[in-house]
């Protein structure tokens, strides 16, 4: 189901109560921010905005910021959001206060980044210059909180992997969550961004095979690492039951081996 619930200027917030139909949206509520009316806009229009999705805790009478990002809206990509905004299980927990008397309140906080009339310098790099980083994690089943790998350098920028061994807040211990983070991006100005293509895999220590996912979306802007979006990855990367299955070979001697294959495709800077 597609429901428009909130409008601010020329934008709308869209909620899919039963997920947006994607694999990531399964058993989750999906939320998106979209340009409400594009037919009247001039060709080549674009809007840069930082926005956060909110959900109201009716027990403690306060809004909670659940997810945020910075993106560029344009005629090719006029909608951004999260397919796995919040799981149905978390949303329906009485103690959370999100659903009370079958009523809930969602919101979105938007900050439009005004065009300062400054040009951009785009540097396209050689995609073939990729780097593989192996991360060996011991005593995996004893891990309780988020774990970060050592930093590694690709394309003159520092990166690291961030692992949630029992999943982030949306997974409730069902899957592991893993992300690639640009260490430098937090210090970027609002125009600077780095585009990366990457895959993350868990090695099968018996057969040598990989559980592998590659991230390279159709819209190139969604693969750009910036100050407001320095981390990209998968909340439902791999089910814990599959990882721990002794016949699979992913966890041997309570040790698993993860590998990131990263290449930097381009960099955008202010043209000064």
Automatic annotation (TrEMBL):
Pfam families to which the protein is assigned, alphabetical: MATH_2
InterPro entries membership: MATH/TRAF_dom, TRAF-like
Domain of life assignment: Eukaryota
PANTHER family (UniProt xref): TRAF-LIKE FAMILY PROTEIN, UBIQUITIN CARBOXYL-TERMINAL HYDROLASE 7-LIKE ISOFORM X1
Protein name: Ubiquitin C-terminal hydrolase 13-like
Gene: LOC107788455
